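User: Thanks for the earlier help. One more: Methionine ABC transporter ATP-binding protein. Can you show the sequence and predicted structure together?

Assistant: Of course, both are below.
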Amino acid sequence: MITLDAVRKIFKTKDGPVNAVDQVDLSIEQGEIFGIIGYSGAGKSTLIRMLNMLERPTSGSVTVAGKDLSKLTKAELRKARQEISMIFQHFNLLWSRTVRENIAFPLEIAGIGKAERLKRVDELIKLVGLEGRGESYPSQLSGGQKQRVGIARALANNPKVLLCDEATSALDPKTTDSILNLLVEINEKLGLTIVLITHEMHVIRKICHRVAVMENGRVVEQGPVLDVFRHPSEEITKDFVKQVTEPEETTDLIKQLAFEKPQYKIVQLTFVGGKAEQPVITDVIRKFNVQINILQGKVSQTQKGAYGTLYIQLVGADREVSEAISYMNQQQVEVEVVSYE
Ligand SMILES: Nc1ncnc2c1ncn2[C@@H]1O[C@H](COP(=O)(O)OP(=O)(O)OP(=O)(O)O)[C@@H](O)[C@H]1O
């Protein structure tokens, strides 16, 4: 559905050229929810804005639904943009228009007649769960409701692709969850391709099928979400994965234990599915003369199944502990001895 081939964007500034996006290749399938994660300044906004030519690449090509966007005339681009909608962190609603009028706006621009417009607005209001709020003004809505208007407006002309620019970053965790659930619902119901940018790994974890990690304008790692969670290869990806799997308190506790009792090993077990770790722990206790203290455990749900981490402390003689670790290494879990030097 979307192909980026050697895409670069260089901004000319008074301080010299800025390489915002540097030789990015990406391929996003139809019907996929694809996440791009990176810290501030990594080039995410610039990249997503090139997917609808709000920003033109300095070189390389962006193909969406079979069309090379940089080769389109102005009129063709306007038409193509009806198929590539966007929602924003700060909603970008028209404040003097009601919810219904905001949603109707792109339909007016597309020249849709009044009767059809009214019918379509009713459908969209229902789709995003805003029944009864059609006559309200944006200033009378909560953040989550405003984003629902943004989504309804973006869907008005039946786009093929929805671009989400930090769409939940201004929302509290509960509202974020409800908007993410709505995006999944739309993806499944309409078969819409969704590309989102974020700096929050739990957004990726919760709704994305695949993820690309950006750093200094480049995509440094990409893959199915569950694979990236299990085997992050770059340091930056490991940091993002920790946002979800390793709360700060755990890090502090582990550091303290490692300092106080350096002779005991602390091990992180990673497993896919909810039950995999249970037999391993029982087996280790039965087979080896070690005591196991469970420090922290967490199971996170992704679009493609559950992913869990468990931190344990192994207490026992060196040899028994090493043998227990080798044994765990041979089981259906990934094992990493944690150290904080
Ligand atoms: N219009 C512009 N002119 C000059 N430099 C720009 C422009 N837009 C972005 N940049 C620069 O390009 C780099 C990437 O910025 P970009 O906004 O794409 O990153 P980001 O990952 O989206 O970060 P953030 O989430 O903070 O917006 C930054 O160094 C930024 O200063």
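User: Great, one quick takeaway?

Assistant: The pocket of adenosine-5'-triphosphate is lined by residues 11, 13, 18, 20, 38, 40-46 (CB under 6 Å).
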